[in-house]
Amino acid sequence: MAGPAPYACRPDVSRGRRHPEPPPAGRTDFQRDRDRIIHCSAFRRLEYKTQVFLNHEGDLFRTRLTHSIEVAQIARTLARNLAVNEDLTEAIALAHDLGHTPFGHAGQDELNACLRERVPEAGGFEHNLQSLRVVDELEERYAAFNGLNLCFETREGILKHCSRGHARRLGDVGARFLDGTQPSLEAQLTNLADEIAYNNHDVDDGLRSGLITVRQLLDVDIFAAHHEQVLRRHPGVDPKRLVSEVIRAMINTLVQDLTRTTADRLGRLRPQSVDEVRAGPPLAAFSDEVRVQADALKQFLLKNLYRHFQVMRMTGKARRVVRELFRAFQEDPRLLADEYRREDPVDQARAIADYIAGMTDRYAIREHRAIYRMD
Length: 375
Ligand code: MG
Hints:
There is one protein chain. The protein is mainly alpha-helical. The chain has one domain: Hypothetical protein af1432 (Orthogonal Bundle), CATH 1.10.3210. The chain is 63% helix and 0% strand. Helix 4 crosses helix 10, helix 10 runs antiparallel to helix 13 and helix 16 runs antiparallel to helix 17. It is globular. The structure holds magnesium ion (MG). Magnesium ion binds next to helix 3.
């Protein structure tokens, strides 16, 4: 097997950690980052946070934890195919959703709305930024610093999106959102691995829940094409196995297309270092044809699953829990344990957001009950 490509991130020439530490013995700095992520408490909480279906709705649905593991699996395959750093992609993938609120996107949107309405100076809530905040500030595990003190390259990958206002305050890791440069190839690939993972597992979970059907999905080109191929190879296959064969074939097509298209771009542009990757155009991409197909699948899921009335009922309840928790704590901070109390109102709002964002689904429901009900 060939060594790392010249455009790969290398742990021995990392841009380093915010608090300098001696290099680890017996593993690289990127392995250490991955290991720190796996051992942190925010990572364990992912097990009880909603991806699309509430954690208690069924034992077989994805949670944020199993989603993150699937992203890591796909990202590592991509990294190995393209000779970039696998440990770094794995670290980014496992950490990318650490800042997610309870109740999936509904929880995050509601927390953002609460902050913006009630304390506009606090600058709202962005889940990518919160993931960075978890690893930079909120984890309390080390004697010498707050957070996990991860390498620049891991932090760069975790911060997928960021508004310009926040980017200005973040220093080195925010700079690319102001000067329009790219992150490392490891970060670009992990970002697309996230998309491959959720599009496919949401099809799987959606079918399992009964909220969407195979018949509906046959209107989506990428699904229909693979469905036909599997049936040709395995006529009369059991319907459950058929679905899982279609999904594994779709993941495979997407991974291979992404690998090929990215390899073509690398072959044309020949970046000689990570800095050349950062300065150039985006490198990780699907072919135009597959991009169109993946977008159509995404649109299908948006219309038929994420906005399904049964999902909307769940998200409506989730929004109410988040809104009412935020309001109760903000109007009377004495309801908060001492560790979440702050003098300054903007700091207080941020501490409340950190507290709510860190909750698992069931913890949030329990807190809501404790505050609003006597029984
Ligand atoms: Mg994700």
